[in-house]
Amino acid sequence: MAYPQTAFAATSVHDNSLIGRRRTTVCASTLLYQLQVLKDTGRYDAFKLKWHPVYDEPTVVWPIPNHLFWDSDVAKWIEGACYLLKHKAIPEVDHAIQELVEMIRSAQQPDGYLNIHYTVVEPGKRFTNLRDMHEMYNCGHMIEAALAHSDFYRNDLLLAPMIRYVDLLCETFGPGASQLHGYPGHPEIELALLRLHDRTGDPKHLALARYFITERGNHKGVEDESYFLWEARKRGDDFSRRPAFYPKEAPKCLWYHQAHAPIIEQPTIEGHSVRAMYLLTAVADLIRIEPSSSQDLNTALYRLWNNMTDRKMYVTGGIGAIEQWEGFGQDFFLPQGTDEGGCYSETCASIGVMMLAQRLLQIDLDAKFADIMELCLYNTVLTSMSHDGKGFTYDNQLASSDESHSKRSEWFTVACCPPNILRLLGQIGGYAWSFDINQSQQSAVVAAHLYISSSLKFSIGGQEVHITQNGGWPWNGDIDFVVETGSVAVTLKLRIPQWATTIEMQPWCPDAVREKGYLTLPAEWIAQNRAFKLSIPLKPRWLAAHPFTNQNTVSLARGPVVYCVEDVDNQWVQDHFKGVFVNPQNSFEEHQIVDDKTGDEYVGITLQDGARNLPELAAAFAPMLDAEKLKASLEHAPPVSALHFIPYYFRSNRGGKGHMRVGLKHAS
Amino acid sequence: MAYPQTAFAATSVHDNSLIGRRRTTVCASTLLYQLQVLKDTGRYDAFKLKWHPVYDEPTVVWPIPNHLFWDSDVAKWIEGACYLLKHKAIPEVDHAIQELVEMIRSAQQPDGYLNIHYTVVEPGKRFTNLRDMHEMYNCGHMIEAALAHSDFYRNDLLLAPMIRYVDLLCETFGPGASQLHGYPGHPEIELALLRLHDRTGDPKHLALARYFITERGNHKGVEDESYFLWEARKRGDDFSRRPAFYPKEAPKCLWYHQAHAPIIEQPTIEGHSVRAMYLLTAVADLIRIEPSSSQDLNTALYRLWNNMTDRKMYVTGGIGAIEQWEGFGQDFFLPQGTDEGGCYSETCASIGVMMLAQRLLQIDLDAKFADIMELCLYNTVLTSMSHDGKGFTYDNQLASSDESHSKRSEWFTVACCPPNILRLLGQIGGYAWSFDINQSQQSAVVAAHLYISSSLKFSIGGQEVHITQNGGWPWNGDIDFVVETGSVAVTLKLRIPQWATTIEMQPWCPDAVREKGYLTLPAEWIAQNRAFKLSIPLKPRWLAAHPFTNQNTVSLARGPVVYCVEDVDNQWVQDHFKGVFVNPQNSFEEHQIVDDKTGDEYVGITLQDGARNLPELAAAFAPMLDAEKLKASLEHAPPVSALHFIPYYFRSNRGGKGHMRVGLKHAS
């Protein structure tokens, strides 16, 4: 059960946790809200293949037409909706899906091709710009929608046309003399093809995914040059005209697409961060499916993951410091906001990190992957949707600034992020749990990666296994497990986060083994202990930034939740908290809060004293600021009476000026 | 005597100081070396107006032809040489100047026009691209060369043709209906025109300078749009094709040229830093010449200066964090090197800061301007030439990195910096001293801004004033003054740097008044005290960076000299000193050093202990680095036995790996 998109079907998420409440909001509000936006913007009817005025509009991000992602916007909504309909029936959503599928089917060309832009706007030019035009990205998302649709509706109304389209791709791309030796500018289809192969067993689906992955970055791919450059020359591109997201001319920017070198040779993670995550997710899947022929990829995958988490990841799980290419900066370049030189931290990128982490857990059960997965979920990902489910972020900076407030938007021209939340929350049970069944031995190994109140149910030889976890995570560290296994031998592995200083269990399991961050409870013990409680104490702690980031800041965390300060609770602030500095030695108060306006429950934290506000430094100092005078000046800085922290994900839900910050200067 | 280019003629710089020795090197080596480069590269003969193979080469920095600055390269060499020939006769240099002037004269077109590119490469296109093509920048430097030439040779062989060219410009540009309402993309001619006006008294020279300064940034300059955009449309520019130095399309990048708004409305200093400095230098001159009609400019000038020095200047006096546009980043964005996200700190930009500071001192005698002037001189500017006078830097980063070593080059395609050092060192006496003469009262006010062993000589009504300063500055803080004034009443103002904690005088002047950083010695006292000693104790001190820079670093300074660590003296270093952190409480040893290889004398400083080396941080920390664990890890970091500092300007003279750093992490 390697894929959360299928594994989630064995789970049910209870309504009474933070994640459960967010899913309730999504079902009650977001699905229908987004459906209405799809209709209002023209996306809903786009597969009717009529001209839309948007197609004439100048591009916002040259050379990408503004409507280029419409196929995937619809597909991602369908996919997310199909997951969520399992949780709650919504007739209007159900009806829309069926209508959309009919329109998509009718848009397919006789040879299987299926793409709005190249059918309506630029017919005859298909597959001439793999680098920029997202044809296969759209196709990948439609394959994923088709798989979700097929699972929910138990028919192949969407899957069958997508398989026909993939047949065309399998003919078109590959190493053969008559084939194009290309690969997508924006990876996504690779992971979709591997999932399709999991369903169809058709070896050519696996082969095409492997081809796309291994051919990528080949410097001598076609006529002794990289495919993307060859293709651009064939189009007659003027290389001096740089796409908006390229800092230099095209030949120097293949790293944007992770196509500057074969993946196995890439020393560091580079470029557009969503592309990188989708690509590496497929790489991880391929390693799991064909481990023996993927040794080099495995080495590269660990190298790139480590480079990312050790040197290019924000404390919120966000990745991508650079707005221009929505992607990675240099090692340790992690400014908190625009006024510090950057910070992008795209929602979809952190969803991609979760996808990749979930895949890595399938090939290597190490809690370090799950820790990052959870970090992303409760911080960068959760903050991307407003409390009412109708506002979204694209980037998730760690500090606001006058240049860039941390407000949410109703929608985006490039609308990848909003429907991605649907998809993720719809299948979140598949991230919380994983399980391996051994039919012949009537046994199973179950892992709980995330502590979300939920249950897992599956059967082996007619025996039903039913495991429930219940608790108030992430606010309360007690998790109650109830396990019913019949005669099945179930081994249970519970993740112990790296930040947990102590754990308790009641009753204690004397044979429990703790390895790579998982506590293994043997099947024999489980058979004797149908109910037990795991306790992971949650208390505020300060996180630091690596010294090489030049962020001499500390960030407050409690369990997996990273905190921020916001002006709503600290109304004196005038400078986006840029001048606040704190002494980590000082003590906290925790408060159980039910927010007046939103009804959301969370733990707020107050630092009663120990915070000060940077004084106006005498201009005469600069630029030859005397270190001793500065120190004295800081020591006499005016104190801040109290500093109130809220979970970062909850920011920008209650009005205010939009002043917010995660990392606060460390008073030394 | 407002202009150092003329004032310097009243001074003579002694050979026995750091600056004196650099001038000796320039006369013995650099002038002839650069002359040879001018010849080898084709610049020397370019005014013969023959085709050169370089004119066919693809541009390195599109759309700027590689040879576009050749006029100014030659002009700046002539100008610098004319200053230095006053100090030391060099027949080969003298001969070359005369030959070059002949070639320049022969290159002038019948209507006065004089420019290599538009005569040879693109005839007929003159004045069609003021934004990019540096026509008037070249002209400005040629005017300055002509003034220097006229002063030294006492003829107008170069000045006369330049005045003819300026006549053409005066006809071509201005507010008249038949005139072009343009201004230069790269300011320089403005300050040259003001100096020319100082010589000629011709009001149209002043008027053209004022027009260029005040018309700049007019959004409705021509046909309701900015001149540069109007001009680009007229050329048929494709705006999506961005010049290499524009991060966005042309209409969004007028700030690069300080043309995004009229100067009086600009809130912050932006764009290419050399352009900004040359422009503001002319603004300061204009304010001095016509104070009553320049109130708004005066307000803007202070605002922009303060923004620069308080928020956009490195501890070395360097400006410009951003390589792409060779210019200013956001407020407080001052990373030390490429691997931290930037650092450019161009040589010419700091020379420009010195020019501007020197002009500001003429309108407001405040030592804060002189402090910055001196900071630039002894650090960013002095480091830009190797000890042998044959190696040069363009950018002057504060830390090396694997991406960007701090080596010097023999020359550059865009060769603005190397001859700029000649010009500056040639006229440095004019920066050290300024003097105002009151003929009718037989009095003078003399200010000593820089403590460079030198003398100043001028006469009033037949009485000679001769003031000498002698000392070992910047290594020794004692300066001996000898003043001969005849019957002239000379008031002397001595700069007391802001960092000077105490000063002594022997004999003490009881009537001395200290105001805005200058110690005024009344004429009566001077008349009684022909010799005295000023002592400004020099001892190592730590400078800090403003907290908003996110540089939690300290830099060592002693007097005006900023220090760095270099691998030659600290051979254990592997990481460009990125992981070294120091405790500013620890004590120093100072050493008088005469360098084996170079013979250069300086004070070296050793921090005997208190420096440690960042340990390899456990990867498991990242990105949720526990603040307490990090602190413990740093406290147990391996000590560095001793840390040897050398003056920053002296780096990269003795081989080594090129590892160097100014700001070291502050151990807290």
TrEMBL record, chains A, B:
Membrane spanning segments where? none
Give the residue range of the signal peptide: none
Quote the protein name from its UniProt record: Non-reducing end beta-L-arabinofuranosidase
Q: Ranges for the Non-reducing end beta-L-arabinofuranosidase-like GH127 middle domain?
A: 446-528
Record-level GO BP terms: carbohydrate metabolic process
Q: Cite the Non-reducing end beta-L-arabinofuranosidase-like GH127 catalytic domain residue spans from the record.
A: 16-428
Query: Could you tell me the superkingdom of the organism this chain comes from?
Result: Eukaryota
Where in the numbering of this chain does the Non-reducing end beta-L-arabinofuranosidase-like GH127 C-terminal domain appear?
542-662
**InterPro entries, per the entry:** 6-hairpin_glycosidase_sf (IPR008928), Beta-AFase-like (IPR049174), Beta-AFase-like_GH127_C (IPR049049), Beta-AFase-like_GH127_cat (IPR012878), Beta-AFase-like_GH127_middle (IPR049046)
